[in-house]
Amino acid sequence: MTLVLDVQDLCTSFHTRAGVVKAVNGVSFTLRKGEVLGLVGESGSGKTVTGFSLLGLVDAPGRIDRGRIVLNGQDLVGLPERELRKRRGRDIAMIFQDPIATLNPLLSIRTQMTMALDAHASMGRAAAEKRCVEVLEKVGIPDPRSRLDNYPHEFSGGMRQRVAIAIALLHNPSVIVADEPTTALDVSIQAQILHEMRSLAQETGTALIWISHDLATVSSLATRLLVMYAGRVVEEGPTAEVLNNPRHPYTRGLIDSLPATAEPGKPLSQIPGTTPSLLSLGQGCPFKPRCTYATDICDTAPALSAVTKRAWRCHHPLAMEGAA
């Protein structure tokens, strides 16, 4: 498949009075046409900042310190804001977690979608309406033509999120970054949207980066997983292989903490401790204080090991066989 996104050694920091917060620290991955990549980890692991960095949406005091974000052959890092604006929405789009904060409550859906179209394309009123109806129908909005003149408050939470997805699809972007877009929705609506997003990726060829803390949700959608901790990728590989045979103890902990894996009547498993402060990570493995496998060698940073399509960052990787 065609390579659409190549991220290499991405480092994004927030330069505060207390010190430098390395929110994204040397993240690298590739994305191909139609592929769904899951980006998972606890809150504070760097998932959302990674997504914002891809679109150049990191505000001061944050900044991209180094790295490359090559989208369709062009490096986005260092581009002037005017050039980035030309690509947002057209070549790469984002679906945010809360649709009510994304959509303008004072403007009709027709107006908001037409504005998004006008930002990157010049078309007549009839053509614009036709395109709006097409994408609304594609994401499952019933009677889309009549709903164009509705306002966001006239839609349910699930329907508002579908509208946000439709806006992201208007220009058939090469990549869509979805930042936990189903977190606030009930389980049945989540399942519908996940099914529709999987189908849209297959039909349109749009590559999708799905950011979530919920391994169960991501496992039903993504073909490949990146597990992040303290701003770093600690494990990656095909979804089924990562979930069935995790190599990193942190990945194992995330899987064990899923309610579905718990025995009835017994307490849920949990990873001990809390995520570390990104202001004072030190030189060793950031997961050491919470890891039951840690030894003195973990005071040095582990290198990224790789076998075929799998990669992990650990001095004491779990065995491939029998780990699940």
Automatic annotation (TrEMBL):
Q: Which PROSITE patterns match?
A: ABC_TRANSPORTER_1, ABC_TRANSPORTER_2
Q: Which UniProt keyword terms apply here?
A: ATP-binding, Cell membrane, Membrane, Nucleotide-binding, Transport
What is the protein named?
ABC transporter ATP-binding protein
Name the species this protein comes from.
Answer: Hwanghaeella grinnelliae
Q: Give the GO molecular function terms.
A: ATP binding; ATP hydrolysis activity
Q: Which family does it belong to?
A: Belongs to the ABC transporter superfamily.
How is this protein positioned relative to the membrane?
Answer: Peripheral membrane protein
What single Pfam family name could you report for this chain, choosing any that match? oligo_HPY
GO terms for CC?
A: plasma membrane
